[in-house]
């Protein structure tokens, strides 16, 4: 890490002409209108008719003074904000999530919501909910599980009209989009069995925070082998070359003929280690990942994978907006994760 | 995309016992203390001595009522917030940035700041600054360039005490950590020349938003070849297999002997396309990436890369805190990006 040089105290110059923050009263004075008129114009209130010249005068005065409305003051007056809070995911997110998030954010901003992501490093579950509640968001979208019914209640008591979770399971009081990661594992398992594999290893990543995805994926594979002669073997694995090298060195004694590698990045790691050990893919070991990342197509043999269909950001934004406008709406659950096997060369 | 089923209107039940949001006055009444005492206790004010039993009573009352302090109200009273705002990057971020960001966030939360990431989809430059200003952050950290002196002024007039940018260039009014991406290109160029290469192709990614990184990297390579007999050829490239395939098919007519591929992900794409075309790496084409991602070590031949040393999150957090406490501090610039070539097998 590069050190940022300490700023020497000598460079602390006397504050240069500290201008005070302009207020809507300053704007009203300069434009020669009431504060209420300033508020109507700058908040684009359609309920009140204001002439075009007045509107222009207010905008020009605001611009001249550099006035920006104060979201917190506005939300205190209105009794609620237009802020939709999303905690930052705990784990590094891939391109798939980034794309989904950008689409969601775009759709919410078109519905006049302000999306903020709140960094919850070190906070988990209901403790995190308390920190989020301090910002008084009108809605909270939790993109992964981990929030319980108590956390949901804290948020609602603090004025959140909607709590929407993307979660592997239902949670009391929240609208939940069930991401059926079991289906991802199930699809991978069915595929391997159909390709004639019978002794399936399943990578269980050891990074903290991934259990909520990896457990249902593992259970999905177990469901797929149920009633067949195929077996499932758990393969705990850290995301590093040494751990993968040990797995590959043990491969032949494990007596497996296939591996579901949790996702494409783990699959790349495992495939490389197996190839370095001289194990033929797919002959000696069929490999399948999940997420359908570009890198899987760049591997040789090309990586088979499970493609995930995340919910459309626009549909999720509409659910949030509906729930905000109708706080009495009974919490709903929807199954929203589609899973499709992309068969390539590695399986 | 999976469609979220529309919620039928029938499920809009009458609002279940709408409890009103508890206030600090409710907590004061239940605990039998003044509102000021509630505020002192819950905000951990050390200036006022309050007995342990009173403290406990306030905490218990707050817990019973489910009261959470209101950050916006507190910041209106205090005249400023403890909110540090960071815009969400426009481009998908890799693991390197995630790690830096987590460390920064952790360090700021230990200094009692609340970090929120603001989604600025569709907003650029000074227009974005206006949207950020509405949240009245006490400090703004801009992790990439794109904000001009006017945007900085808008933020400062709205009460931001510090604007800190990680940027390729200095900006009036802001503390700027200069990320010298030119040094990344320069290091890669020097390395290739030392390895005997003379006709260097430089990948220029066509994804929008990457120009602020790719332009200085290209200039850095030009600096490295300056005064040598080596030449630089720009290779515009989209991040897809077809574009890489066309580049590889043309490779021999381009008459190049090396390529700096912008980063490791582009390097993986280019290397695959060249290998599929039967072009030997590094003999016919030396390849070097940047970022030092795990995937480069998993390629064969192993990918040479430029390792970036980002500033330590803790040092950056301290700079922010210092600037908040001393708003008169003259804006400073620091060069903070270190670049080290990791020579492996591809060059």
UniProtKB/TrEMBL annotation, chains A, B:
Top-rank taxon, per record: Bacteria
Pfam families per UniProt: LacI, Peripla_BP_3
InterPro entries: HTH_LacI (IPR000843), LacI/GalR-like_sensor (IPR046335), Lambda_DNA-bd_dom_sf (IPR010982), Peripla_BP_I (IPR028082)
SMART domains: HTH_LACI
Keyword list, A-Z: DNA-binding, Transcription, Transcription regulation
Signal peptide range: none
HTH lacI-type domain residues: 22-78
Designated name of the protein: Transcriptional regulator, LacI family
Protein species of origin: Streptomyces graminofaciens
Taxonomic lineage from the root: Bacteria, Bacillati, Actinomycetota, Actinomycetes, Kitasatosporales
């Amino acid at each position: 890490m590069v050190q940022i040089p300490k700023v020497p105290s000598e460079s602390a110059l006397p504050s240069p002409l500290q201008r005070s923050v302009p207020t809507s009263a300053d704007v009203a004075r300069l434009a020669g209108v009431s504060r209420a008129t300033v508020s109507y114009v700058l908040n684009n209130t359609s309920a009140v008719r204001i002439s075009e010249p007045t509107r222009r005068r207010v905008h020009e005065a605001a611009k001249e003074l550099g006035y920006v409305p104060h979201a917190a003051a506005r939300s205190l007056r209105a009794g609620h904000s237009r802020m939709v809070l999303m905690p930052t995911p705990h784990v590094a997110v891939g391109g798939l999530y980034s794309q989904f998030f950008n689409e969601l954010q775009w759709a919410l901003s078109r519905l006049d919501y302000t999306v903020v992501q709140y960094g919850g490093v070190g906070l988990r579950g209901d403790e995190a909910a308390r920190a989020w509640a301090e910002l008084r968001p009108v809605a909270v979208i939790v993109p992964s599980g981990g929030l319980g019914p108590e956390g949901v209640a804290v948020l609602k008591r603090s004025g959140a009209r909607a709590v929407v979770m993307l979660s592997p399971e239902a949670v009391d009081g929240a609208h939940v989009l069930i991401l059926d990661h079991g289906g991802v594992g199930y699809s991978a398992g069915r595929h391997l069995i159909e390709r004639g594999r019978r002794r399936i290893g399943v990578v269980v990543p050891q990074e903290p925070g991934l259990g909520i995805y990896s457990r249902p994926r593992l259970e999905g594979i177990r469901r797929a082998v149920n009633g067949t002669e195929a077996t499932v073997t758990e393969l705990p694995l850290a995301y590093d070359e040494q751990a993968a090298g040990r797995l590959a060195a043990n491969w032949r004694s494990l007596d497996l003929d296939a591996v579901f590698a949790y996702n494409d990045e783990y699959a790349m790691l495992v495939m490389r280690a197996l190839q370095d050990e001289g194990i033929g893919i797919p002959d000696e070991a069929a490999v399948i990942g999940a997420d359908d990342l570009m890198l899987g197509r760049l591997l040789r043999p090309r990586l088979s994978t499970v493609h995930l269909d995340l919910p459309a950001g626009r549909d999720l934004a509409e659910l949030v907006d509906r729930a905000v406008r109708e706080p009495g709406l009974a919490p709903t659950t929807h199954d929203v994760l589609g899973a499709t096997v992309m068969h390539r060369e590695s399986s």
